[in-house]
From TrEMBL:
The keyword Oxidoreductase applies. The keyword Flavoprotein applies. Keywords: FAD, Flavoprotein, Oxidoreductase, Peroxisome. Signal peptide: none annotated. It is found in: Peroxisome matrix. The lineage of its organism: Eukaryota, Fungi, Dikarya, Ascomycota, Pezizomycotina. Pfam families: DAO. InterPro entries: D-amino_acid_oxidase_CS, DAO, FAD-dep_OxRdtase. One of its GO terms (cellular component) is peroxisomal matrix. Belongs to the DAMOX/DASOX family. This is D-amino-acid oxidase. It comes from Aspergillus brasiliensis (strain CBS 101740 / IMI 381727 / IBT 21946).
Length: 369
């Protein structure tokens, strides 16, 4: 019998993954409340804009080997691998991945973002399949080191609805809601009774959500171009010569999702509209790095554009917030602030959040005795 009433606020990848794991316990009765749901495209809703993939990296010193960040990503890979192998309906596929490093990018915004990814002998070399360094004599001028391995790319337009479907199969109820205060979520459970615990997965919106008001959150604006061209591999590099907050990456989403080309890493930039000049630079850089993207001799006119997009990565000073507290008498577990690694750390972070929910519910049960 479901006797633990849980409300999850937010339906991005973090909220949906947390709901999915909690819903596997039949004693939990779960409502997901969200302003935005899968199928929506809005600047406030980050998850649909993501690539998305598994490329481990560091974020402001929290992604070093042995850190929580490493543990979250290490613990997420087995589930992504299992879904890719056994659940094609989830919209994930394996993809050959090449990562290039330029030493001169160290210290830049993108260089910091990529710093763990481009290390020699990084921690994740024992996690992802087929990891190998690319010999120096095979590198183009200006590239200091590179590696290749097998990773995954996620079609977010398929995967997010798949998570919703798995949750609904386990009895989760989804409701639209716009709340001004986190404590109000406790009154949104579909039973009509007050929730025992609220899980806050509102990402960047936690900056303005009453009761939370986390001033450590800030956006890192990412601009992308989605094209029909398929380079046949996932490629990225640590920086560009066009600006320290611009970068080159491309990945082809599973199940006909198109190839996502980026990008930018513009901290504290909230502009929701694509910059046409940046879009041109993104496309030119992608072709220069990976000429196979277009037919021989073609420039950006060889790209078949599906759409332009902008997403705001929810960065947080010190890394994600996964902790429990009481706000106005309501038990709250936070799981937000995942920057640009929400998908690749999703199951590891959600597992930590689930443990905190379980501890909170145990304390409530003891208090009733």
């Amino acid at each position: 019998m479901a006797n633990n009433r849980i409300v999850i606020l937010g339906a991005g990848v973090s909220g949906l993954t947390t709901a999915y794991l909690l819903s596997q316990d039949a004693s939990n009765s779960i409502t997901v409340l969200a302003k935005h749901m899968p199928g929506d495209y809005d600047i406030e809703y980050t998850s649909p804009w993501a690539g998305a993939n598994y490329l481990p990296y560091v974020l402001q010193g929290v992604g070093k080997a042995g850190s929580d960040h490493e543990r979250w990503e290490r613990n997420t890979w087995p589930t992504l691998r299992e879904l890719t192998k056994n659940h094609p309906e989830a919209g994930i596929h394996f993809q050959e991945t090449i990562v290039y490093n330029r030493t001169k990018d160290q210290g830049s915004a993108t260089g910091e973002w990529f710093s763990e990814l481009v290390q020699k002998d990084p921690w994740y070399m024992e996690v992802v399949p087929d990891f190998q360094d690319i010999p120096a004599d095979q590198l183009a001028p200006g590239i200091d080191n590179a590696s290749k391995f097998t990773s995954v790319c996620i079609n977010t337009a398929v995967y997010l609805p798949w998570l919703v479907g798995q949750c609904r199969k386990n009895g989760v109820v989804f409701k639209r809601a716009v709340l001004k205060h986190i404590a109000d979520a406790a009154n949104g459970h579909h039973s009509g009774q007050k929730a025992d615990v609220v899980v806050n997965c509102t990402g960047l919106s936690s900056k303005k959500l009453g009761g939370v008001l986390d001033d450590k959150l800030y956006p890192a604006r990412g601009q992308i171009v989605v094209v029909r061209n398929d380079p046949g591999k996932m490629v990225s590099i640590s920086g560009t010569d066009d600006g320290e907050d611009e970068v080159v990456y491309m990945m082809t989403r599973a199940a006909g999702g198109g190839t996502v080309i980026g990008g930018s890493y513009q901290k504290n930039q909230w502009d929701p509209l694509p910059d046409p000049n940046l879009a041109v630079r993104i496309m030119k850089r992608a072709i220069a790095l990976c000429p196979e993207l277009v037919e021989k001799g073609q420039g950006i006119e060889g790209l078949d554009i599906i759409r332009h997009g902008v997403g705001l990565r929810p960065l947080r000073e010190g890394g994600p917030r996964i902790e429990a507290e009481k706000i106005d008498g309501v038990s709250v577990v936070h799981n937000y602030g995942h920057g640009g690694f929400g998908y690749q750390a999703s199951f590891g972070c959600a597992e930590d959040a689930v443990k905190l929910v379980q501890e909170t519910l145990r304390r409530k049960d003891k208090a009733k005795l």
